[in-house]
Amino acid sequence: MIALSSPVFFSFLSRRSPTKLISKLSSRLSIESTMMFRRSTVFAAAAALVYGASSVAAFAPCSPAVGNLVSKTNSATIQQQSQSRQYSSTQLQMAGPAQVDLTGKVAFVAGVADSSGYGWAIARALASAGATIIVGTWPPVLKIFESGLRKGSFDEDSILPDGSKMNIEKVYPLDAVFDTADDVPDEIKENKRYAGLSGYTIEEVAKAIEADYGKIDILVHSLANGPEVTKPLLETSRKGYLAASSASAYSAVSLLQKFGPIMNEGGNMLSLTYIASEKVIPGYGGGMSSAKAQLESDTRTLAYEAGRKWKLRVNTISAGPLKSRAASAIGKEPGQKTFIEYAIDYSKANAPLAQDLYNEDVGNSALFLCSGLARTVTGVTLYVDNGLHAMGMALDSESMSDRNV
């Protein structure tokens, strides 16, 4: 068959009389038009079959008259296209707003002692989606925290979007620097701040939770401590450096070791890190920057190992500076701003988004990572810091003072 646009066809035209030419041309156009229609019909049917067989629920083929379209096209353009083309287009439709429902899921948040930090915000976000919330609290502040819960000190910060109040179903004493009961030294056992408490090692808490709830679905590591955090690295002792690593990084490894076997398939472990893992943050010392770098590296390795062994996901959030109770205690000198106040001011001056960061921002991001919406997301460090991590130059630097940025 000769194509209508080929040079051979045009040569063929020049050798025919007008009457015969029109007759031949009409016949040829009729044949090719019919064949085009048949080809487009087969193609459309095949495309519908492929899309119909797809298991991806986010998109589905639809007619222009059904549902909300991904993009709207001018009606005149649609008419023009329908006149010039003999085939129909396939349009895709979004499934609609994603809904997160964690009803029936149990979330253990390790490292909650008040309502000002990210751990509380994560617990609240998970509770808003229906999850059962249980928490682990450092023994020296356990009584203060439980007293605050009883007195309603945290009621205002417990209000969920639907007007109900978050219920922390149970509080477990947890000291995440101890893996088993045999690891607890006598000086801790005899410490008055641990008086009357037992079963606070990671292994013991995991066994207690298994006895109370069977299996859990979400494990949150909101733990960090560096006894020499105000010291530059060059002045940090071995003991201080290893203590920061133990409490802030290895504790996440140990938590997953002990809790992994009692987590349901498809569950998620989430931790919190900080930009000091990859950028120099003066004032955040004592080995804490090293511990955060270790935590991020371990997140990737644990994502692989726990994914293959238990079908769990492991992620971490690199959160921007927040003036929590714990952060406010770093570098507090008379007459000066605290470390976290400097960090917040710097972020506002230099981040792409010059806005306040709230603990709910991290809570909402955590909700996504802990939900089925992120079922294929694992081994990632998610930045929730108004974009500060992306910057390579300080806009408020004296060297930039004469530039309009």
Biggest β-sheet strands, sense, barrel: 7 strands, parallel
Sketch the topology as an H/E string, one letter per element: HHEHEEHEHEHHEHEHEHHHE
General shape? globular
How do the strands of the widest beta sheet line up side by side? 5-4-3-6-7-8-9
The fraction of residues assigned to DSSP E strands is 5-15%
Overall average residue pLDDT: 81
Number of strands: 9
* Poorly predicted segments: 1-22, 28-96
Separate helix tally:
12
Q: Helix share of residues?
A: 40-55%
Put the structure in a nutshell.
The chain has 405 residues and is α/β, with parallel strands linked by helices. It has helices spanning 7-14, 18-53, 75-84, 118-128, 139-151, 186-189, 202-213, 238-259, 288-310, 325-328, 339-350, 359-370, and strands at residues 59-62, 91-94, 106-110, 132-137, 168-173, 216-221, 263-273, 313-319, 381-384.
